[in-house]
């Protein structure tokens, strides 16, 4: 049987990791992997997470299954964190998933179950796992323009033009905040325009929000998702706790489905539980219990929010430092977009050839499409990166 297998496309980011590890240069800089790092290059365990885990280990009396949808308390705190009071709880079905990727996969499985002929529209560019999973599932897919390589901002006119081709019942995937891989976000006014167009077309929004709290703060980062959820009878939202709680390896995510009424919510909840059963049965609980413990305890939540703000402000400071250093070196404001982007990533908008030149000549590792992880920098490596960008002719 296994002789019939063919090699699958290599993961470009994992291949980049291997190259970085094999590089003997001591001054190399890793801007490829999408993991938050502090100034020392470490991905720390947050203070609130450590305390929540201590309490769980001390008080937990069983490792029995929590249920096909996961712990209801986890769904409750995540609904509140992401949606606030924008949608009544009675309209929201939810399941815990293994990470944000698990939420994306289960959302696509639900779309395929409910609307097998629907086309899923993705931003160009988007996170590579989006098209990869869609293709694997044999679903129809289309793209809308999103990033302008000249301005390094959103190509809003191109986006609106392409979304005019969306058919009734199609699904449009939108990034809730901190667009991956570009770092360029829609304004609230632009999002309202997109919402109006989607409503007119009869499209269903699907929000991927993986970096809540990494952009402009928890409330502002959730605003677009809440705008969308409150504007439609049906909406899918995939959320990850990997970044904002720093629990990458615990694989903690959630899929929420906004329904038109309580009856539809009950039916959707049953179908979501069914999909979990077919895939992995009961979702992992440790990370979800950590998140629940933090969000239910005022002191832990306050400490978590404070550390999350420190993380966010640290990335904003690195962005500003890099933009300022490039302005000093080039006597130009053409790199100011770096200070305006939000989240862990920015896309330089340069060619794969110049990205390779940065790697070969300067030991700067970033993804071939010029996506770089701002969190991979520190105050000492920002000037190194800025000089390399200028020397390479980016």
TrEMBL record:
InterPro entries in alphabetical order: Aminotransferase_I/II_large, Asp_trans, PyrdxlP-dep_Trfase, PyrdxlP-dep_Trfase_major, PyrdxlP-dep_Trfase_small
One BP term from GO: L-phenylalanine biosynthetic process from chorismate via phenylpyruvate
Catalytic class of the enzyme: transferase
Needed cofactors: pyridoxal 5'-phosphate
Domain Aminotransferase class I/classII large: 26-389
GO cellular component: cytosol
MF terms (GO), sorted A to Z: identical protein binding; L-aspartate:2-oxoglutarate aminotransferase activity; L-tyrosine-2-oxoglutarate transaminase activity; pyridoxal phosphate binding
Swiss-Prot/TrEMBL keywords: Aminotransferase, Pyridoxal phosphate, Transferase
E.C. designation(s): 2.6.1.-
SUPFAM superfamilies reported for this sequence: PLP-dependent transferases (SSF53383)
Entry-linked Pfam families: Aminotran_1_2
Quaternary state and interactors: Homodimer.
Family indicated by similarity: Belongs to the class-I pyridoxal-phosphate-dependent aminotransferase family.
Protein name in UniProt: Amino acid aminotransferase
Source organism of this protein record: Yoonia algicola
């Amino acid at each position: 049987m296994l002789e019939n297998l063919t090699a699958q496309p290599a993961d470009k980011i994992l291949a980049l990791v291997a190259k970085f590890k094999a590089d003997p240069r001591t001054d190399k800089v890793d801007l490829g992997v999408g993991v938050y790092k502090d100034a020392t290059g470490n991905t720390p365990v947050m203070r609130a997470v450590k305390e929540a885990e201590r309490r769980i280990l001390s008080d937990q009396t069983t490792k029995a299954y929590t249920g096909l949808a996961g712990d209801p308390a986890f769904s409750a705190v995540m609904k509140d964190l992401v949606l606030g009071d924008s949608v009544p709880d009675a309209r929201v079905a939810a399941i815990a998933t293994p990470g944000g990727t698990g939420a994306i996969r289960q959302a696509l499985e639900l779309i395929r179950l409910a609307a097998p002929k629907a086309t899923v529209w993705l931003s160009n560019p988007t996170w590579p796992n989006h098209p990869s999973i869609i293709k694997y599932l044999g679903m129809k897919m289309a793209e809308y323009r999103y990033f302008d390589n000249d301005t390094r901002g959103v190509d809003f006119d191109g986006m609106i033009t392409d979304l005019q081709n969306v058919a009734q019942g199609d699904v449009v995937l939108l990034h809730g905040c901190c667009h991956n891989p570009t770092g360029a976000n829609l304004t609230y006014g632009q999002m309202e325009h997109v919402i109006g167009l989607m409503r007119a077309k009869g499209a269903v929004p699907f929000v991927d929000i993986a970096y809540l709290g990494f952009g402009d703060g928890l409330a502002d980062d959730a605003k677009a998702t809440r705008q969308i959820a409150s504007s439609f009878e049906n909406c899918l939202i995939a959320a990850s706790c990997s970044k904002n709680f720093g629990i990458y390896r615990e694989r903690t995510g959630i899929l929420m489905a906004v329904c038109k009424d309580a009856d539809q919510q009950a039916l959707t909840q049953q179908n979501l539980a069914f999909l979990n059963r077919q895939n992995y049965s009961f979702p992992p609980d440790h990370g979800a219990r950590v998140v629940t413990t933090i969000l239910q305890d005022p002191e832990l939540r306050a400490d978590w929010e404070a550390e999350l703000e420190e993380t966010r402000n640290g990335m904003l400071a690195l962005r500003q430092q890099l933009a300022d250093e490039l302005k000093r070196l080039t006597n130009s404001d053409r790199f100011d977009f770096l200070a305006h982007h939000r989240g862990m990533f920015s896309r330089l908008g340069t060619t794969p050839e110049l990205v390779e030149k940065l790697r070969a000549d300067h030991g700067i590792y970033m993804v071939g499409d010029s996506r770089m992880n701002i969190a991979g920098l520190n105050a000492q490596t920002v000037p190194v990166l800025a000089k390399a960008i200028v020397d390479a002719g980016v």
